[in-house]
Amino acid sequence: MKNELIKPKGLVTNTNRRNFLKFGTMSVAGAGLLLMGCNDDDDMMPPMLEGVNLGSGDIGILNYAYALEQLEAAFYASVIAGGYFANASAEEKTIMGDLEKHERAHRDFFKAALGSAAIADLEVDFSTIDFSNRTAVLAAAKTFEDLGVAAYNGAGQFIEDPNYLLIAGKIVSVEARHAAAIRDLINPGSDDFAGDDLIDSNGLERTLGFTDVLTAASTYVKTPIDFSQLPS
Amino acid sequence: MNLLKLLDTMCPDTNSSEEKDMFFSRREAFRQFGDLSKKVAMAAVPLGVLSALPKVAKADTASLIGVLNYALTLEHLEYRYYQTGVESGVIDGADLNIFTKIRDHELAHVNFLTEVIGNVLMGTPVAEPDFDFTAGGNFSPFTDYPTFLALSQAFEDTGVRAYKGQAANVMESDVVLTAALSIHSVEARHASMVRRLRTKKGQDTVKGWITNGSIGSLPAATQAIYAGEENVSHGGVDVTALTGIDAAAVSEGWDEPLSKDQVLGIASLFLA
């Protein structure tokens, strides 16, 4: 049964005092990300229903990936419904259509794999992106794809189960393929597909941690994301 | 990857004062070398710290050396291929920047892995083998540009699968795993670019991603490179059945690993 892939035990273990304290500092640092109990002093409990908690351990990492895939899938759904796509070249229509399918497949895969441990649907906000404008759409796509690669590369070391590590590895290289294609659409024939802004002098690509990734994503996500229990 | 950052998060997980001293002296050495010879220091010292930790036992170190020497063999192949290609004049002038960039990355990978194996894990980096990129006279990559592009795609897609297949074998070391992942995604970027370039030039219809394990117009000898890429089932979930998305698109959305033996079988075609 597909829902048995991932046991939700990670949700109730590995919640220690250290992670709780870390959450306390992060809610200050990432005000846009974690809006817990800000506007009502009478609340005895934070309004947890509005936000999602990624959980801990491997479940937490998979929910982290699921959150990013939700964001990407929602983005490309908006792209193919927008004015840029309607008038795009045949090549760009194929690419955007493929990316919409790939990200939707990733999203639905994580939801099924996580089963009852999956976070709720995130509410996205793409009001800053003009979906009728090619430059704006490609710039946003570049941001999402590069961010996804850096996120998976940065999270790999925290995964404990080699089977999950392999699944993440299967997906991250496709995100990198996407990122290279988008970058080439923006600056055709250049070496931006693997640009020096991302690849260091050892030939290693940028990695990003949970805080950096979710802070970058928070521009486009309304739902508060509690990632305080992720491994560190 | 910011190795200095990673270094700062590491602590000597030991009660031995000797090991703690080694850890801190290596960390300090890294900071001092940082300005003088950034490249070598970046490669050597943080992973040197790692070898000082009791967490990495000798047997594990031997295993890491084995995996990294395997990776180094592939990087030697890729670097020599692109270096020879760039020197040969076979590459269209308009594309030279692309292949120079790829060549530079492969050289950086060779140097990085050599440094880590030799001066950090204290192993012996494999010497560069003698390559025969004609595969016994079957290909002419350095006089025929379409062939050069075809083999380039084959090598990049193989590299992606090879690194992916080793992730679990280096997961005992966070730093080595992160470095391997950070090479893996660079190879995937190369692969995407070369695949699309071939299609732009009318030599194939492949996309940046791999569809149904298809070799496209590549020579039949490359079939082993794409075998298994048609998979649509992951972690017990049949994604095609789950989503209703066509199998071609689902197969594109996940890249598959290859074992060391499978990859060396492919690479052996190009060993002299």
TrEMBL record, chain A:
Native species: Algoriphagus pacificus
Protein name, as recorded: Ferritin-like domain-containing protein
SUPFAM superfamilies linked: Ferritin-like (SSF47240)
Automatic annotation (TrEMBL), chain B:
A Pfam family this chain is assigned to: Ferritin_2
InterPro entries per the UniProt record, alphabetical: Ferritin-like, Ferritin-like_SF
Protein name: Ferritin-like domain-containing protein
